[in-house]
Known about the structure:
The protein is α+β, with helices and mostly antiparallel strands and 458 residues long. The protein has a domain at 21-195: Ammonium transporter AmtB like domains (Ammonium transporter fold), CATH 1.10.3430.10. Helices cover 26% and strands 24% of the residues. The protein has seven helices and 24 strands. The strands form seven sheets. It has a four-stranded mixed beta sheet with strand order 1-2-3-4, with helices on one face. A hairpin with a 5-residue loop joins β17 (385-386) and β18. The radius of gyration is 27 Å and the shape is elongated. 36% of the residues are buried. The model is unreliable at 10-28 and 128-139 (pLDDT under 50).
Amino acid sequence: MTRxxxxxxxxxxxxxxxxxxxxxxxxxxxxxxxxxxxWMLTSTALVLLMTVPGxxxxxxxxxRKKNILATMMQSFTICCxxxxxxxVAGYSIAFTTGTAFMGDFSRVMxxxxxxxxxxxxxxxxxxxxxxIKGVNDMVTTIPETVYMMFQMTFAIITPxxxxxxxxxxxxxxxFMWFMSLWLLFVYCPIxxxxxxxxxxxxxxxxxxxPSRLLRVSLDGSQQTExxxxxxxxxxxxxxxxxxHTIVVTMRGHDNDSSGxxxxxxxxxxxxxRLTNGEDDFLPSCAxxxxxxxxxGVESRWMRVPLAxxxxxxxxxxxxxxxxxxxxxxxxxxxxxxxxxxxxxxDASTSTYSALLGIxxxxxxxxxxxxxxxxxxxxxxxxAIQFAPDGxxxxxxxxxxxxxxxxxxxxxxxxxxxxxxxFHSDSIFGFAWSPxxxxxxxxxxxxxxxxxxxxxxxx
Length: 458
């Protein structure tokens, strides 16, 4: 049995920006939307027309005169055969959870596909395979039958495209057998790998809403509520243990008014309190680390074992007036170092200069390395993070037009470089996936007005 895992975790800063979206903020059951349904039906028809007559005429015009009818019939017959195969087993293999390599058979013969429609009331949208064990939850505003047909049109056009490579080269009966088997043993399993929860679809984002945790696919098509408590207020979260564990700041759970760190599995199970402070926040951990670093009221720098069962440890740098003012920003991928931001007063100029301190986790008296960051660093525009190889730091910088980008600064003193080339908007945080191959950057802007008040009585 494999443990569920998540790819990305975003803190409450991103959460605040996204919480206003109706799809996330509304706790009511999803309802059918006539506009969404009409557009999906239109899209389904358009994709189908790409095959018949689209591809049928296109390929017929590329073969010898005696093979025109056979080539056109290949596209038409594919529509018929794939429709049957898809409804019997293909849809279930592709879009139910099953294993990492193929779905299960809970939707064979479209079993249960209309269960979301209540007799006499078909206004409630489907939650894909709701109540069926081992199937993804995908909240939509269209009937599942429409979703099934939309995906079916792509299952039709894909083998129809292959027909162009086999024109004049294969018997008609052999071609039909080949396409039926190819659909079942190639197309459907690969579709499951990418879109059905398989091993290639490990690209989900953890969204922290005010009282809920959502697991959302990158294209937004799949949403699953991991945790919800209407009495709780959730804060920043971290993804630990290679994506298998979530650590979140929570206040109000179990009538506890203090802000503490709680851990849970990636599916929301095994909820456990990690800390006992009054205001613990900003958890951070290495992808496979054993410690969770965070900030507290009594001490800015604290850490606690991810597994729990032990008291939290206070981290005391020697010069606390300089290094314990700002919280720990990030932990290195090997769990041996952490980085913190600080400022140092310059008496000669009456200004403050920024510093980045790299501390060894087992000895944090003084920084093992101090760096002067890019003067355009934006501390609150996203955490200062280690690069995937642990040999550089990444952080947000801003220009005089309030445009944000990501800056990469090597630890060996070499010149830094700008990772992104955005020309507008602000960055609200960024995060690497646990495999360190992808970077998620939420961006946007905040509208503001300047109001001039004056005394009209004068």
